[in-house]
Amino acid sequence: MENNSAMRNDRPTVMVTNDDGIDAPGLRALVRVLVSSNRFNVLVCAPDSEKSAVSHCITWRNALIAKPVEISGAIAFAVSGTPADCTALGISNALFPSIPDLVISGINMGSNCGYHILVLRLKRGNVNLHSVTVAGAREAFFNDVPAVSLSYDWVGGKSNVDDFVLAAEACLPIFSAVLAEVKKKTYPQNCFLNIDVPTNVANHKGYRLTKQGKSRVKMGWRQVTSDAQGGKMLSTMTMETNSSPHSEAEALSTKHGHLMFKREVAGSHVDDGDTDYSYLQEGYITVSPLGALSHAEMDSQAYFKQWLPSVTECFSSSAL
Which residues form the Survival protein SurE-like phosphatase/nucleotidase domain (predicted)? Predict the structure, then answer.
């Protein structure tokens, strides 16, 4: 904690977390941009390794280890927990000398739009389960700390690590505007922001207020005879065809009557219209306010409003 002297009272404090780990290029680029702007005190509390596909999991039984990490201009810790753990610890006043004014989760390598904000997300043309980037921001929101989740629509063959810097720079005005509203106590407390930056960030079309759409990837299952069959599904949900030799336990699993299954992409549904995914593909930086609750569509509400009393009536009649 020797770096506490770097904290300045005349600057707002921003804490950065992510799901790809503290050494991920997206996080490092974001921190560099925040530090070099000379506008913020910067804290980092991020997983010590990649934690993709853990959704909003938290660690309950075991103690977390927080290891100081040297990142120029920031106070940083690598934590042996999930992104939700990192956010919760970082805003608790137990690790850092003060509670941050804003939590930024990212920059994620891959967009977070539609249903895959909660369930699935596309990553470099492949599939990544559970938007943990959004979970890092959501955990702050649950604890009344303003938060932003930030993702870059990485496309293999087109994108490079310098695009993370451009994405962070493009979003600096949003971060500053949020903090200005927080200082005036006019920032809404019933939501947090999910921001997606387009692939061609250097030529983005500006900011676009959007809503969460229904784009999603459908997953299926395929029975296999060994874990090596069809390649190994990595934590990024990409396929590694040159898998390393497997253990004897894996090789013997089917001999003992066990069944083995692997996930596979079964299809996808892409939104059209006034949604986050559509505007992202058009080249806009999409800004979508999100909340904790996911309400059913209005027609579903209307259906069940009539349906539920009929269930009670049927049960009462049968009981007689």
Answer: 14-217
Q: Can you say whether residue 128 is alpha, beta or left, with left for phi > 0 and alpha for psi between -120 and 50 degrees?
A: beta
Per-residue pLDDT of the chain (320 residues; tens, 9 = 90+): 444 446 888 899 999 999 889 999 999 999 999 999 999 999 999 999 775 544 456 666 789 999 999 999 999 999 998 888 999 999 999 999 999 999 999 999 988 876 444 443 333 333 334 456 788 899 999 999 999 999 999 999 999 999 999 999 999 999 999 999 999 999 999 999 999 999 999 999 999 998 775 555 566 788 888 766 654 443 333 344 444 444 444 444 455 678 888 877 665 555 666 788 889 999 999 998 988 765 556 676 787 788 778 887 766 666 55
Return the amino acid letter for 225.
T
pTM (two decimals): 0.76
CA distances (Å), origin 10, targets 4, 36, 215: 14, 16, 42
